[in-house]
């Protein structure tokens, strides 16, 4: 396994004796870094979404996406980054699924439309027949070792499943439940998810097994803390000093629509764009990691 102990701890925000990194992760994870792991086959499919989760993953820093793809996993199929296309790509996908049945990991990005027998989202063609995302999810879901639902669309339905949805878009877990697919599912929500959340979850699964999950099947490692309780602007809330505009920095953003009191994620300490900033620093939290987004979090810029 080429992911170093230091890299994994950096992803998770943890600490190891002598590394000088602040404490943010439970000690059990550190044992994982002593283990070796084979490069696990990963099949990544995309349903209804914007490809933003894939774009976010490509911005991974510790380790880089190059290290993830070449040293950590064996990415066998990905509609956005693979060189192959057409029958060559689809045939390889099913060959890998059959050869490594019960051993490969399935990454799903985007929601799964059920209306019209899934015809709102075709993801390929085999033997002259179109393949729907619905069919692909059921087929691969039954054969994989575990599923990573990456992004809020895959985890909870997200924007495609919002009010006015005509395609009957649903999360992966609903497809599994309705078709008696009893495989583990890990939700890594976000619109998009932070690259660390995705890489860190994949690394944890390979090195240590499925991480401890919350009631929404999210890794507590990344989604175990409330943003509002840990927000650097929390003291302003306690003093009832509220922002009236986005440019008013020394105040709490709650009264202009910040959803942080209802959201669990470590954005407040992880930050985005390689640590440059995060949502609440320049705008408000819109609750993109929570079930019911976007409907239950709308309107974004008014008091809840």
Give the averaged pLDDT, no decimals: 88
Fraction in beta strands = 5-15%
Uncertain regions: pLDDT < 50 for 5+ in a row? 15-37
DSSP helix fraction: 25-40%
Number of helices: 14
Number of domains: 2
Order of helices and strands: HHEHHEHEEEEHEHEHEHHHHHH
| Order of strands in the sheet with most strands | 2-1-3-7-9
Sheet with the most strands? 5 strands, parallel
Shape: globular
Tell me what the structure shows:
With 304 residues, the protein is an alpha/beta fold. The protein has 14 helices and nine strands. It has helices spanning 5-12, 28-32, 52-58, 65-72, 86-99, 133-143, 152-156, 172-178, 195-208, 220-223, 227-230, 234-238, 267-270, 279-282, and strands at residues 40-46, 73-77, 105-109, 112-113, 122-126, 129-132, 146-150, 169-170, 185-188. The strands form three sheets. The chain has a five-stranded parallel beta sheet with strand order 2-1-3-7-9, with helices on both faces. The chain has a two-stranded antiparallel ribbon with strand order 4-8. A two-stranded antiparallel ribbon has the order 5-6. Helix 3 (52-58) crosses helix 9. The longest helix has 14 residues, at 86-99. The termini are far apart.
């Amino acid at each position: 396994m080429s992911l170093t102990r230091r890299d994994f701890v950096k992803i998770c925000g943890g600490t190891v004796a002598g590394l000088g990194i602040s404490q943010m992760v439970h000690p059990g994870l550190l044992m994982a870094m002593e283990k070796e792991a084979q490069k696990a086959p990963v099949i990544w499919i995309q349903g209804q979404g914007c490809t933003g989760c894939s774009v976010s993953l490509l911005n991974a820093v510790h380790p880089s996406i190059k290290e993830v793809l070449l040293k950590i996993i064996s990415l066998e199929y990905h509609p956005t980054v693979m060189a192959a296309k057409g029958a060559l790509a689809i045939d390889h996908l099913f060959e890998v699924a059959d050869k490594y049945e019960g051993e490969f990991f399935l990454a799903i990005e985007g929601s799964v439309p059920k209306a019209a027998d899934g015809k709102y989202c075709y993801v390929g063609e085999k033997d002259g027949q179109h393949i729907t995302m619905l069919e692909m999810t059921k087929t691969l879901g039954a054969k994989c070792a575990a599923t990573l639902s990456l992004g809020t669309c895959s985890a909870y339905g997200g924007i495609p499943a919002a009010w006015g949805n005509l395609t009957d878009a649903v999360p992966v877990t609903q497809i599994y439940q309705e078709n008696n697919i009893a495989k583990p599912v890990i939700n890594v929500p976000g619109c998009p998810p932070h690259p660390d959340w995705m890489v860190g979850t994949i690394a944890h699964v390979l090195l240590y097994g499925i991480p401890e999950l919350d009631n929404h099947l999210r890794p507590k490692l990344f989604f175990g803390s409330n943003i509002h309780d840990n927000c650097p602007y929390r003291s302003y809330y306690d003093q009832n000093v509220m922002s009236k505009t986005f440019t008013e920095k020394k105040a709490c953003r709650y009264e202009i629509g910040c959803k942080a009191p209802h959201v669990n994620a470590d954005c407040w300490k992880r930050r985005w764009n390689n640590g440059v900033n995060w949502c609440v620093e320049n705008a408000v939290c819109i609750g993109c990691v929570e079930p019911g987004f976007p409907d239950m979090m709308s309107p974004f810029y008014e008091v809840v």
